[in-house]
Amino acid sequence: MRKNLLLVMLLTTGVVAETTVYVGDQVKIPMRANDAIAKDNVISHLNINTPVTLIKKQANGWSHIKHDDKKGFMISRYLTSKKPGNDLVKSLTIDLDREQKSNRKKYKAMQDLTQQIETHGAEISRLNIKILNSNTQSLELNKLQSKLFNLDETNTDLTQQVSILKAANGSLHTTDFLTIISAVTLFLGFGVGMGMSRVSGSRNNKMYTL
Question: What pLDDT score was predicted for residue 56?
Answer without folding.
Answer: 92
